[in-house]
């Protein structure tokens, strides 16, 4: 019996997926904060992210699989579905970490399910797994007071944070890693209570 059939049983392996785009040119962009959270989780666990499984960089420690899909953002679902099928994971055992342009810089928002909210990477994953019941951790990346819309949105998320924001970004990455650890230890409800808002 696969984990997907176990229902409420606690899965033996859990997956934290950070979303981003591969390549040095994207490393410090707003769109890549998900990658940075997974890198921080790997640093804390003392594991190295390596290429080779499901077109992703992966690292594993104590029944926790960390992954950075290398498919580019809009095709993240292909890599995640491969990992889910190979490891026989239930959707409740996956946490997707991503940027959110609608949230102000530094804000975290955990949810157990919902729509992609315009995020193409999350949309790709939900379509590939055929469910919206997928826990996700959104990181606020909007430095401006006013919402960014239209063509400016793509340039904004693919742009770097301002030098003035970098310390706040580093703090947000650390807090997001704390939220991931809380999710692993205590579940989504407790993590939401401690880290949302």
Structure, explained:
This protein is an alpha/beta fold. Helix content is 36%, strand content 22%. It is built from six helices and seven strands. Mean pLDDT is 92; it is low at 1-11.
Could you write a compact summary of the structure shown?
This protein is an alpha/beta fold. The protein is built from 6 helices and 7 strands; from the N terminus they run βαβββαββαβααα.
Secondary structure topology:
Layout: E1 14-18, H1 33-45, E2 50-53, E3 56-61, E4 64-69, H2 76-87, E5 94-104, E6 108-111, H3 120-129, E7 136-142, H4 151-157, H5 166-186, H6 188-195
Parallel strand pairs: 1-4, 1-5, 5-7
Antiparallel strand pairs: 2-3, 3-4, 6-7
Helix pairs in contact: 1-5, 2-3, 5-6
């Amino acid at each position: 019996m696969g984990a997907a059939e176990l229902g409420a049983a606690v899965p033996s392996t859990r997956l934290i997926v950070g979303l981003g785009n591969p390549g040095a040119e994207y490393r410090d962009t707003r769109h890549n904060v998900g990658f940075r959270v997974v890198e921080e989780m790997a640093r804390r666990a003392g594991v190295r992210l390596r290429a080779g499984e499901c077109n992703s960089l992966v690292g594993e420690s104590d029944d926790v699989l960390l992954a950075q899909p290398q498919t580019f953002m809009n095709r993240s679902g292909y890599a995640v579905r491969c990992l889910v099928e190979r490891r026989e994971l239930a959707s409740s055992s996956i946490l997707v970490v991503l940027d959110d342009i609608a949230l102000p810089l530094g804000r975290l928002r955990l949810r157990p399910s919902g729509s992609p909210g315009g995020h193409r990477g999350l949309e790709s994953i939900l379509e590939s797994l055929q469910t919206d019941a997928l826990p996700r951790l959104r990181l606020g990346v909007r430095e401006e007071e006013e919402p960014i819309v239209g063509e400016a949105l793509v340039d904004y998320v693919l742009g770097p944070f301002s030098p003035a924001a970098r310390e706040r970004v580093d703090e947000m990455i650390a807090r997001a890693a704390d939220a991931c650890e809380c999710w692993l230890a205590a579940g989504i409800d407790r993590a939401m209570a401690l880290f949302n808002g």
